[in-house]
Specification:
- It is an enzyme of class 2 (transferase).
- This is tRNA N(3)-methylcytidine methyltransferase.
- Keywords: Methyltransferase, Transferase.
- The protein has 10 helices and 10 strands.
- The radius of gyration is 20 Å and the shape is globular.
- Helix 8 (218-228) crosses helix 10.
- By secondary structure, it is α/β, with parallel strands linked by helices.
Length: 323
């Protein structure tokens, strides 16, 4: 994780040790059901739940956009988004109401941000928030589109087959921010004249998104992310970690898989250990740069109870050479 001066910023990520929490949970008889093996046979028709419809209803209920706070902390966690080259292309996967997009766009006035979500309601909220922002040119550098990357994949205009082939076949010595699609006329990638795609992206943010995807679709989802990143590009990851407070609050009847739960509104949530993330990323070819638990204590202002939150923080790079 970025070693910024978090004390000065009143930001902490190691309020407690994850392994101590693990021991406490695993020794608590009332929480043993979270640890038991799970057979998908027991889940009935839960896999038939339409994720996009569930999230549409979720965002419709929270249509004011105030349910999610702007995630300014991400620029401390992922300073690469602030120090990237001019006109870098960022794809935010699972953008929700734009709480991640806005601070990224504000930080650097040349960054181009594409944002997708499976929910049309979420995209409406995101566009409203971006359009209402008073920052210079924010709305002109933001483009949203509907997409369920775990089932249908990403649209070809992000990276055509020729560019994807070029990513695999050529050696690029650049770093995120360089326009690797601009190559000579004999290149197998799309030419500047054809303009059939944007030539891939320099960064992908996957922030509290993969946990909403059924585990059996996660490998395809990560493969899709890998395919549209330029060589040297970064995937920036943050999601729910194993034994997070929200996991421990789920009732036994809400389990629909191993470490997977279904909320009453039909949205699902999976809780990651470090190895589950590591295996997903390495299987498609990502190089691990950072991967750790982020353990934060927060206080519920209404009842004064301390909440122990656990998230997984990770940075993964697409190699600049094929092996």
């Amino acid at each position: 994780m970025s070693k910024q001066n978090w004390v000065a910023e009143n930001y902490y990520s190691k309020d407690f040790e994850w392994d101590e929490l693990r021991q406490e949970v695993e020794n608590d008889p009332s929480l043993q059901y979270h640890l038991l093996p799970y057979s998908k046979v027991d889940s009935g028709n839960q896999d038939d739940v339409q994720d996009s419809e569930a999230w549409n209803k979720f965002h419709a209920r929270h249509s004011t956009g105030k349910f999610f706070k702007e995630r300014r902390y991400l620029l401390k966690e992922f300073p690469e988004l602030a120090s990237c080259k001019d006109y870098s292309k960022v794809l935010e996967v699972g953008c929700g109401n734009g709480s991640t997009a806005l601070p990224i766009l504000r930080e650097k006035e040349s960054t181009i941000l594409y944002a997708c979500d499976c929910s049309t309601e979420a995209l409406e909220r995101a566009n409203e928030i971006i359009n209402a922002d008073n920052s210079i040119s924010t709305k002109h550098r933001f483009s949203s589109f509907q997409c369920d990357f775990s089932t249908l994949g990403f649209p070809m205009w992000l990276a055509c087959n020729s560019c994807k082939g070029s990513f695999l076949e050529k050696q690029f010595l650049g770093f995120p921010g360089e326009d690797n699609c601009k190559i000579d006329i004999n290149s197998p990638s799309c030419s500047e004249e054809s303009k059939c795609c944007i030539g891939g992206v320099d960064f992908i943010t996957l922030i509290f998104t993969l946990s909403a995807v059924s585990p059996d679709r996660m490998p395809k989802a990560i493969t899709q992310c890998f395919s549209i990143l330029k060589p040297g590009g970064l995937l920036l990851f943050r999601d729910y970690g194993l034994y997070d407070m929200t996991m421990l609050r789920f009732e036994p009847a809400q389990r629909v898989g191993y470490r997977e739960y279904l909320r009453s509104d039909g949205t699902r949530s999976y809780f990651f250990c470090l190895n589950s993330v590591r295996n997903l990323m390495s299987a498609v070819g990502f190089t691990e740069l950072e991967l750790e638990y982020c353990c934060v204590k927060s206080v519920n202002r209404r009842n004064g109870k301390i909440m122990r939150r656990v998230w997984v923080h990770g940075k993964f790079q697409k190699p600049t050479t094929s092996h």
